Amino acid sequence: MTMTAMETVRLDVVEAAGMTAAACLFHGFSDPSRLSIVRHLALGEHRVIDLTAHLGLAQSTVSQHLACLRDCGLVSSRPVGRASMWSLNHIDTVMDLLASAEKLLGLTGDAVALCPRYGVDALHEEAR
């Protein structure tokens, strides 16, 4: 059975939407500070003040990154007195993803870090 032109277009749109969502997910993990926060939250719940102390980041930086991760559905918070306790959602799946990323980085060696578009030098250039 062959697909009609309209069915092919619909399939292309669905695939494009899925790729866009995947790119957005990976963008959520693209900042080293956000990755550090995710890894720390994998150890358990933390307050913003705990994360700032552990990671050496400014409170405003941690709060902005937590807001990004929350908007992506990766973290959530619950009130405890005047503070909020932040936790990682879908912890097993997130940790599986990060473990797979580490495995892939091991296989590619320095290629990712040396990439002229997204490697270490490109990150430093972007920060300027």
UniProtKB/TrEMBL annotation:
Translocase is among the record's keywords: no
Keywords of this entry: DNA-binding, Transcription, Transcription regulation
Alphabetical list of SMART domains matching this protein: HTH_ARSR
Taxonomy, superkingdom: Bacteria
PROSITE patterns: HTH_ARSR_2 (PS50987)
Residue ranges of coiled coil: none
HTH arsR-type domain boundaries: 14-109
One Pfam family per UniProt: HTH_5
GO molecular function: DNA binding; DNA-binding transcription factor activity
Record's protein name: ArsR family transcriptional regulator
Species: Nocardioides zhouii
